[in-house]
Amino acid sequence: MSAPRRSLTLRVLALTLAVGAPLACKKEASKPPPAEAKPADDGYDYAAMVADPVADEASALSEGPLAQRAASDAPGRAFVGDLIAGSLSPGEEIDQEFTIDPARCYTLIAVGGEGVVEVEAAITTVAPVRGGETTLAEDAERGAVAVIGGGEACYRGGETRTPARFVLRVSEGAGVVVGQLYASEAPPVD
Fold first, then answer.
1. Structural domain contains residue 189
2. Domain count of the chain?
3. Rounded Cα gap, residues 78 and 160, in angstroms
4. Is 0.85 surpassed by the pTM of this model?
5. Three-state secondary structure call for residue 19
6. 176 is in which domain, residue-wise?
7. Residue 70 is part of a domain; what is its CATH number?
């Protein structure tokens, strides 16, 4: 090999090694497809998380009886907060905080599923210590459906914005309960 050609070859070899490029083109052997990924063994039962009978029943109640009651008791009213749901035994409750706006009119609807005999609903003030709140409104009917402020008799708060919460409680039976608060749209602020 002559000196200039050898010098060129050494420069190419040095450059190739410096940038980490392959020295020769080689067809890569075909790789088998990757094995199906397995979930990490982290202690969670992912199958149980997907199949949740409480969530399934809550969804059916919200799309069925709750939606039907909302059509008659809260027509034209918008959701306030999220739908709440829980599997409750006698004396257990679920609640959600909200702010009563004096310019709005509220309707609370709760529906109990299979096994629930009596659902109680109330709108209360928020107190720093549980039990110190004041009940502002509560449902008067017995049964697996509770409504506060249904139809034209919607609930109106006082003259100032008031921190409040609505509470759903099972007093007889046990099972899934869903509830949603609705309100008329607030008039535009001038």
1. no
2. 1
3. 21
4. no
5. helix
6. 53-183
7. 2.60.120.380
